[in-house]
Each structure stands twice: as C-alpha cells, then as structure tokens.
Amino acid sequence: GAGVSQTPSNKVTEKGKYVELRCDPISGHTALYWYRQSLGQGPEFLIYFQGTGAADDSGLPNDRFFAVRPEGSVSTLKIQRTERGDSAVYLCASSPAPGQSNYGYTFGSGTRLTVV
Amino acid sequence: SQELEQSPQSLIVQEGKNLTINCTSSKTLYGLYWYKQKYGEGLIFLMMLQKGGEEKSHEKITAKLDEKKQQSSLHITASQPSHAGIYLCGADIPGSQGNLIFGKGTKLSVKP
Q: Mutation test of the interface with chain B: which of A10, A89, A90, A107, choosing the one with the most B Cβ atoms within 10 A?
C-alpha cells in the first residue's frame, strides 16, 4: 500500500478483555516496529520485527503483550487481560531495512486504545 | 540510558513569527529525526541529521545538529497555522536495529 495502515483506528474495550491491533506496513518493507504513546509523552519502543521474526522485544512491558508477523508483512499486536494503564495510542512504523533510514521511518496513524 | 529533552514543552506564536524548538540528548547522537504529529494522526517525517554541524531545510523549516552531536534545533520561519502540531525529536539507539527513543514533544500553536 501507499502508507502504513493500522486498524482499528479506535478501540474501546473493557478491563480484562483481549484485544488485537493490526499493522499493514508498506509493501516490501522488511523492518516493522511497534511503539506505544501515552498522553503527553513521546512514543516508546515495544518490539521490532525483521521479516517474520521478532528481533528485539525488549520494550514489551510484560507477558500480557505479544506480537506476531507470520508472513513477514502484516503484524498483529495482542494484549491479554487488558488494564486501564494499557490505554494509549499504539503506533506502527516500517522501513525498507533495519537500521538508520535517511528517509525516516514511516509511521501509521495509530490505534487509540481505551480500556474502561 | 539515553534521554532526549525537548524545550519548550509548548509554544504559542503569532502567525508570521519565527520560532525555535530544541532537543538535547544526554549522550552523543548518531541519528536525529524530527517528526511532526497532529492529533489523531501518525508521525510525519520532517528531517534526519547525522553529522555534527549538519543543517537541512525544507520549505520554511530548518533543522541543525550541533558540532558535538548532543543538541538539535528546529527553526520555523514565518510560521503559518499549518505549522501547528506536536514536534517530536527521535534518536537512534546505538547498537539497536533502528529502534528510536523520543522526546516528549513540543506542542506548537499558531494564532492567525
């Protein structure tokens, strides 16, 4: 696609429920990143994929968070037993290859998750 | 760990005025990115700086990286309402595979 697509754009869920957030990167981009942005803060790194594998998941806050990218394109961020503190905007970014990008990393519009 | 501090946190300027936003790093910067974000939207890439003393411009926005590579500034000339938004600086984390750390952002409002 022309850009990074994230769905849904908004998600409201009840505390304790399971949610899935989807990211469709730019076609051909091998590197995919998930970030979380809380109100008034900059994005914080969660996990990075190179192809199908999670090359760095050091930013995942705990084992309730999990992400997959089974075919090396679309990625899904999964959150189990959601808590109110999980409420944030979840951003996805992609780049042609890992490492420095002279053209920046292309970000999606994000999924605004609200846990009530 | 590396931290990025942005100043000011927020800024209100009259249309047509110039302004500067700063980004200071606790460690040497190896890749510094400026992004713009509007509410409900993703981050829009503005510029990327790597070399000490480097300066890049796009339309009315100029970004500089100091010689010591620990501070960057973003300067907007003759601001317009379309410049309003949140400006974020992000930096490459040495040894990582492209993970960025970000400052908290500077919220810019431009009064017509």
A: A107
